């Protein structure tokens, strides 16, 4: 049984930093993708960052909105996906979800089979 457990969300002022973690169990991270998505009220769930692991390599992706501010990484030994979020903006406010799937990473959230419960990030001005 696959479980994804997110942690690290919270409230912060604009310009601040948060670090999210997603601990995976029952999921083999090989030729597989783990990703961070976010969903603001009334908006579609969008991919923020992802890591595709294959042949001992990690291929990372960070969205244009997050590039230069967010860093995604995966600790293979702990099977934990992390998202370091710096210089947070009010528009980063959303519920952040960890998703996982076998195979390559995709933009569309509905192509991910496994999901965590989400962790709220609130950025105030």
What does this molecule look like?
The chain has strands at residues 3-7, 10-13, 18-25, 32-39, 46-54, 57-62, 70-75, 80-85, 94-102, 114-115, 119-124. It has 125 residues and is mainly β. β7 and β8 form a beta hairpin.
Based on the model shown, name its key terms.
globular; mainly beta; 7-stranded mixed beta sheet; 125 residues; 11 strands; 4-stranded antiparallel beta sheet
Give a short overview.
With 125 residues, this protein is mainly β. The chain is built from no helices and eleven strands. The mean pLDDT is 96.
Give the biggest sheet.
Answer: 7 strands, mixed
- Overall form: globular
- Contiguous uncertain segments of 5+ residues: none
Structural class: mainly beta
The separation of the N and C termini measures 41 Å
Helix-strand pattern, N to C?
Answer: EEEEEEEEEEE
Percent strand equals over 45%
Helix content percent band: under 10%
Describe the protein's topology:
Elements: E1 3-7, E2 10-13, E3 18-25, E4 32-39, E5 46-54, E6 57-62, E7 70-75, E8 80-85, E9 94-102, E10 114-115, E11 119-124
Parallel strand pairs: 2-11
Antiparallel strand pairs: 1-3, 3-8, 4-5, 4-9, 5-6, 7-8, 9-10, 9-11
